[in-house]
Amino acid sequence: MESVYAALILHSASKKINETNIEKILDAAGVKADKNQVKALVAGLEGKNLDEIISSVATAPVAVSAAPAAASGKEVKPKEEKKKDKKEEKKEEEEPTGIGALFG
Fold first, then answer.
1. Tell me: the pLDDT tens digits for 29-79?
2. Which ranges of the chain would DSSP assign to H, the alpha helix?
3. Rounded to an integer, what distance in angstroms lies between the CA atom of residue 54 and that of residue 61?
4. Domains in the chain and their CATH numbers?
Protein backbone atom coordinates (compact mmCIF):
# COMPACT_ATOMS: atom_id res chain seq x y z
CA MET A 1 0.00 0.00 0.00
CA GLU A 2 2.87 2.33 0.74
CA SER A 3 4.05 2.03 -2.84
CA VAL A 4 0.67 3.35 -4.02
CA TYR A 5 1.07 6.36 -1.75
CA ALA A 6 4.56 6.90 -3.12
CA ALA A 7 3.17 6.81 -6.67
CA LEU A 8 0.54 9.39 -5.70
CA ILE A 9 3.22 11.64 -4.24
CA LEU A 10 5.24 11.37 -7.45
CA HIS A 11 2.15 12.13 -9.52
CA SER A 12 1.31 15.14 -7.34
CA ALA A 13 4.86 16.43 -7.76
CA SER A 14 4.67 15.87 -11.54
CA LYS A 15 7.58 13.42 -11.35
CA LYS A 16 7.97 10.24 -13.36
CA ILE A 17 6.44 7.20 -11.70
CA ASN A 18 9.08 4.49 -11.96
CA GLU A 19 10.59 1.85 -9.70
CA THR A 20 13.61 3.94 -8.74
CA ASN A 21 11.59 6.98 -7.68
CA ILE A 22 9.07 4.92 -5.71
CA GLU A 23 11.87 3.08 -3.91
CA LYS A 24 13.57 6.41 -3.07
CA ILE A 25 10.38 7.71 -1.44
CA LEU A 26 9.84 4.49 0.49
CA ASP A 27 13.48 4.50 1.67
CA ALA A 28 13.14 8.11 2.80
CA ALA A 29 10.06 7.15 4.79
CA GLY A 30 11.87 4.23 6.39
CA VAL A 31 9.72 1.60 4.67
CA LYS A 32 11.25 -1.51 3.16
CA ALA A 33 10.19 -1.63 -0.49
CA ASP A 34 8.77 -4.87 -1.84
CA LYS A 35 10.43 -4.86 -5.26
CA ASN A 36 7.86 -7.20 -6.82
CA GLN A 37 4.99 -5.03 -5.63
CA VAL A 38 6.67 -1.86 -6.88
CA LYS A 39 7.37 -3.48 -10.24
CA ALA A 40 3.75 -4.63 -10.57
CA LEU A 41 2.45 -1.18 -9.62
CA VAL A 42 4.63 0.60 -12.18
CA ALA A 43 3.58 -1.89 -14.87
CA GLY A 44 -0.09 -1.48 -13.92
CA LEU A 45 0.06 2.30 -14.08
CA GLU A 46 1.98 2.45 -17.34
CA GLY A 47 -0.07 4.20 -20.02
CA LYS A 48 -2.88 5.07 -17.59
CA ASN A 49 -4.14 8.55 -16.76
CA LEU A 50 -3.77 8.76 -12.99
CA ASP A 51 -6.02 11.84 -12.76
CA GLU A 52 -8.92 9.85 -14.27
CA ILE A 53 -8.30 6.95 -11.91
CA ILE A 54 -8.26 9.26 -8.88
CA SER A 55 -11.45 11.05 -9.93
CA SER A 56 -13.28 7.77 -10.57
CA VAL A 57 -12.33 6.48 -7.12
CA ALA A 58 -13.21 9.79 -5.47
CA THR A 59 -16.75 9.71 -6.90
CA ALA A 60 -17.45 6.05 -6.12
CA PRO A 61 -20.14 5.61 -3.45
CA VAL A 62 -18.90 4.26 -0.15
CA ALA A 63 -21.14 2.14 2.06
CA VAL A 64 -19.21 1.40 5.22
CA SER A 65 -21.41 2.93 7.90
CA ALA A 66 -22.49 -0.42 9.37
CA ALA A 67 -19.19 -2.23 8.88
CA PRO A 68 -17.51 -1.20 12.16
CA ALA A 69 -20.54 -2.21 14.18
CA ALA A 70 -20.83 -5.53 12.41
CA ALA A 71 -17.17 -6.25 13.03
CA SER A 72 -17.46 -5.55 16.75
CA GLY A 73 -20.62 -7.63 17.13
CA LYS A 74 -22.53 -4.76 18.71
CA GLU A 75 -26.03 -3.95 17.62
CA VAL A 76 -26.39 -0.45 16.25
CA LYS A 77 -29.77 1.21 16.15
CA PRO A 78 -30.14 3.95 13.54
CA LYS A 79 -30.66 7.44 14.94
CA GLU A 80 -34.00 7.80 13.19
CA GLU A 81 -35.46 4.87 15.09
CA LYS A 82 -34.34 6.35 18.38
CA LYS A 83 -36.09 9.61 17.52
CA LYS A 84 -39.27 7.73 16.63
CA ASP A 85 -39.19 5.88 19.92
CA LYS A 86 -38.92 9.14 21.85
CA LYS A 87 -41.77 10.68 19.84
CA GLU A 88 -43.95 7.63 20.44
CA GLU A 89 -43.21 7.80 24.16
CA LYS A 90 -44.22 11.46 24.25
CA LYS A 91 -47.48 10.66 22.42
CA GLU A 92 -48.25 7.91 24.91
CA GLU A 93 -47.54 10.24 27.80
CA GLU A 94 -49.58 13.07 26.30
CA GLU A 95 -52.65 10.98 25.54
CA PRO A 96 -55.46 12.05 27.80
CA THR A 97 -56.94 9.54 30.15
CA GLY A 98 -60.35 9.32 31.71
CA ILE A 99 -63.15 11.53 30.36
CA GLY A 100 -60.69 13.66 28.36
CA ALA A 101 -59.87 10.62 26.24
CA LEU A 102 -63.45 10.48 24.98
CA PHE A 103 -63.16 13.87 23.26
CA GLY A 104 -59.83 13.41 21.89
1. 999 989 999 999 999 999 998 888 888 887 767 665 555 555 556 666 656
2. 2-12, 19-28, 35-45, 50-58, 67-72, 79-94
3. 14
4. 2-58 (1.10.10.1410)
